[in-house]
Records
---
Amino acid sequence: MKVDDMHFKLKDSRDAIIRSPREEDVQGTLDYLVKSSGETEFLLRYPEECAKFTPEGERELFESWEKSDCETMLLCEVDGVVVGTSMVTWSNNIKTGHRARVAIGLLKDYWNLGIGTKFFEEMIKIAKSNPRITQMELEFMEGNSRARALYEKMGFRITGVALNAIRLKSGKFLNEYLMIKEF
Ligand SMILES: CC(C)(COP(=O)(O)OP(=O)(O)OC[C@H]1O[C@@H](n2cnc3c(N)ncnc32)[C@H](O)[C@@H]1OP(=O)(O)O)[C@@H](O)C(=O)NCCC(=O)NCCS
């Protein structure tokens, strides 16, 4: 699904755009994936696990997202750089089509500038535009207080915990918390 460009100001007054990815964003998106994966343990991948992402693969994904009626990828651009992405997805299955899943990540230099809030406003709008969807769902890792604060601000509440869902390279296990926002 393609969305209209959404222009807004960061908390530091710089201009930012949230929009659908375009062909020219392929390299920027790949750079974002690798860099963000090395900046925080709170994303699901390590940088070396990004080797499977290729320009051709990204191009195909962009095309399939644009055609899809149940997947929307958004990116945030600041000064020509892809600084973050978010996804909202759901299925067309009868039993589970009321559940939209969301995921989000930003480069570290762009945390706490209001981008996460804007991404969520857009993703909530997209999910609400499908009358079948009655709830949005996400997970966050134990210790990710910034993410939790954002999600609670956007109306999500914790509904469950997956014990030891994450194992870091150090061998440390982390719980993962499930959150839901009902419409
Ligand atoms: C989590 C993340 C998406 C949040 O996006 P963001 O753009 O930084 O969030 P925003 O600036 O819109 O809002 C963050 C809010 O949390 C608050 N906050 C920041 N750090 C906090 C902390 N440690 N504890 C509590 N609240 C905190 C901020 O004050 C802000 O609230 P406000 O708008 O009422 O002032 C982003 O920081 C990020 O990408 N982190 C790394 C990857 C990640 O964790 N992804 C999510 C995986 S589940």
Note: The two ends are 21 Å apart (CA to CA).
---
Amino acid sequence: MFSSMKIEFSALPEGIETLEFHPAPNDLHLETDTCTFAGPVAVRLSVNKTLDQLVVEGLARTHATATCVRCLDEFPVSLDESFRVIARVVPDDEAGDDTGDENFFLLRQSEPVWDLTEIVHDFLLLALPDNPLCREECAGLCAGCGRNLNREPCVCAGKPASGPLAQLSVLLQPSDRRGNGNP
Ligand SMILES: [Zn+2]
Ligand SMILES: [Zn+2]
């Protein structure tokens, strides 16, 4: 089963190795308020090891279901993120320092193990939409009657609106009902 996405520097031969991992979204702490994940994340790492350095070209893929922030409908989202990160093995007292570069890491010489779990988590989370929309022009829910305006018309017309949002939605209704043929 999944333990984390660790690369043991000394266990790798020099040259390029491909490693595959299939962490569950829970292992990566990917769930957000607006996205749920259906299956595992497929992570492929192409690791190029040289004398004291690892260059990793990564690809992380998964599918999620997002909830539209306007109409609350759910819709599928595909994530397909590639990234490139580098780690160098350095004397212990130099390792762990913040390198100031989010794609560059320093590993301890005495125990050069690189855990990429957090890195993959960060890349995938960045790719998730903050405010998912089922489509750019989603009409959302009417604040008055609650109808999904993508599918059915508002039935508020003629009734007194209640609440500040309801009044706003009346103001925002299409103006083409006001008159016919008037310039
Ligand atoms: Zn929507
Ligand atoms: Zn309405």
Note: The chain is about 10% helix and 35% strand.
